[in-house]
Design goal:
The chain is an all-alpha fold. The chain has helices at residues 23-48, 64-83, 88-113, 125-130, 132-165; strands at 2-3, 8-9. Strand 1 (2-3) and strand 2 form a beta hairpin.
């Protein structure tokens, strides 16, 4: 996978998945996933409420949930790439969307956590939302991370029950 924001190849470790994560790490991932899921739900509600883009910088004000959602997804994307918490098959399915979204995710995270001296050169929500392909990709990435986390949690719960029933 090629990380276009820095121009280097980023390879996820092979044959590794959430199965190798400690219970503490999985708990942290699930906590952050819950926050990302809540931010996505807020964003979807705001978007469904009817919004028209204009050049007023205040238009971005309503979509803090979008920036929060993307910032949290950025953390998941980087963890998936750097620490390989998704399986090879999951990364194969997600790879193209993840690669295409990563620059947007990083820009949104930067906007959320760094207070700029000026609004110039900041990603504007209007430009981001006009590109429906990016929003589609973000939703795909979001679902894939959620499915992986929920599958691992369910697997561990079943393992726990099997161990205690014997």
């Amino acid at each position: 996978m090629r990380d276009m924001t820095v121009g280097i190849a980023v390879e996820a470790p092979q044959n590794w998945s959430l199965r190798g994560a400690s219970i503490n790490h999985l708990t942290c991932l699930l906590r952050h996933w819950t926050w990302a899921d809540e931010a996505m739900a807020r964003f979807e509600r705001e978007l469904a409420g009817g919004w028209e883009y204009d050049d007023d910088p205040q238009a971005d004000h309503l979509f803090g949930a979008y920036y929060q959602w993307c910032a949290l997804l950025c953390g998941f994307a980087e963890a998936a790439l750097e620490h390989g918490f998704l399986s090879t098959s999951q990364m194969d399915t997600l790879g193209a969307d993840l690669e295409a979204c990563l620059p947007v995710l990083r820009a949104c995270r930067q906007l959320l956590v760094v207070i700029p001296a000026s609004r110039e050169d900041q990603p504007r929500i209007g430009r981001l939302l006009r590109d429906q392909e990016t929003v589609r990709r973000l939703r795909h990435v979001h679902r894939a991370f959620g499915e992986a986390l929920h599958e691992e949690r369910a697997s561990r719960e079943l393992d726990f029950l099997d161990t205690h029933e014997q």
